Amino acid sequence: MYINELYDKLPLLSAETYTYIGRDGNCHTESEPVLTEHILDVYLNDQLTMKLVCIPQYLTELVLGRLLTEGILEGAFDVEQIYICEHGRRARVVLRERKPEKGISRDCESDREPFTELTPSCCTGNHILNDYFLTGKPVKPVTPIFWKAEQVFDLADRFHAGMPLHGQTWATHSCFLAKDGQLLFQCEDIGRHNALDKAIGYALRHGIPLSRCMVYSSGRIPTDMAMKAIRAGIPILASKASPTAEAIALAKEYGLTLVCAARRDRMKLFAGTKPEV
User: Fold this and answer.
1) Which pLDDT score, from 0 to 100, does residue 122 have?
2) What interhelical angle do 192-205 and 59-69 show, nearest 10?
3) Whole-number pLDDT of residue 84
4) Residue 121 above 60 pLDDT?
5) What distance in Å separates the CA atoms of residue 91 and residue 270, rounded to the nearest whole number?
6) Strands across the sheet with 257-260, in order?
7) Structural domain spans, the chain
8) Which CATH number fits domain 38-133: 3.10.20.10, 3.40.50.2300, 3.40.640.10, 1.10.3110.10?
C-alpha cells in the first residue's frame, strides 16, 4: 500500500469571542478556543463515495478505518494507494481489482445515479453511496482472546491525559488502541465513530493484528459502534459510556466482549468472555 500525504498540520482550533452571562447578572466578554470542522471528500477509484466531517488529524487512518468498518475492505492488502491533497480536503483511494460480488452487476450499479443518505452529525455529514457499499459480504464472528481487567483499568487511568483537545474545548471524543496491555495509539475527533475508525485505520496502516487488540472509546455504544468493532475483527470493545440493548445483543451474537461504564475503579461486562483472574 503506497501512501502519499501532502497535507501538513492543519488548524484544529479557532479563537472565538462570546458574551458570558451569569445568573447573578454578571455580563462580560471572553474568548476561548473552539474546535473547527473539516470536510474530507473520499474518492474510491475516482468515484466520490463519502464526505466525512472530522478534524484534520490522521486522515489516512480515518479513511482506512472507515472503509474497513463499512465492509469495503477486508484488509490493507485491498488498497493499492492512498493520496491526500495538500489541503486535506480530498482523499483518493485506488483499490486493487476485485471481482464483483455475486448478484451485483458493476455495469448496472455504475449507471445508477448516486443518492445521498443523511447520517448522524456526530460522525459524518453525508454519505454518497454507490456500489462500493453493496459488498454483500457476511459479517464474521470475532475470535475471543484472554484479557485482564487491569488492562481496561489502565486505559481508563490514561484516558483523561490522552484527550488534550477535549480538555480545551469539551467538543471531542477519543479512542485508545491497545494490544497485549500496551497502549499503541490514541486519537480524538468530533464524533466517536471517527475516533474508532482512526484507531482501526492506524492498526491497518502499521500492520497491527486487530484480532489481538482492545479499543477503549469515550462514547456510548449503539449497534453501529459495535458493528465497527466486529467488522474489524476486534475482540474487545470497552467504553467509558453505556451501550444499548441492541448493541449488547449484537455483541453476544458475534462473540464481541463488550465492557461499558469502564472507569478507573469499576466496569460492567455486558457480553463476552470474563477477564482472567
Assistant:
1) 52
2) 100
3) 98
4) no
5) 38
6) 182-189, 173-179, 213-217, 236-239, 257-260, 268-271
7) 38-133, 149-271
8) 3.10.20.10
Residue 156 grid cell? 481508563
pLDDT (tens digit per residue) in 26-71: 999 999 999 999 999 999 999 999 999 999 999 999 999 999 999 9
Q: Which long-range contacts (CB under 8 A, 24 or more apart) does 24-27 make?
A: none
Position 58 scores a pLDDT of 97
Q: What mean pLDDT is predicted for residues 106-133?
A: 47
| Maximum pairwise Cα distance, the chain | 68
Half-sphere exposure in the Cβ direction for 84 (13 Å, CA): 21
Contact yes or no for 247/224 (Cβ under 8 A)? no
Residue with cell 503506497: 2
Would you give the DSSP letter of residue 106? H
C-alpha cell at 128: 454518497
> What sign does the CA torsion over 171, 175, 176, 177 have?
negative
Question: Pairing state of beta strands 27-35 and 90-95?
Answer: unpaired
CB atoms within 10 A of CB 245: 10
Distance, CA of 224 to chain centre:
11
Check if CATH label 3.40.140.10 holds for domain 149-271. yes
Q: Is 216 left (phi over 0), alpha (psi -120 to 50) or beta?
A: beta
pLDDT in tens, 211-220: 999 999 999 9
Placement of cell 471517527 in the chain: 194
More confident residue, 60 or 102: 60
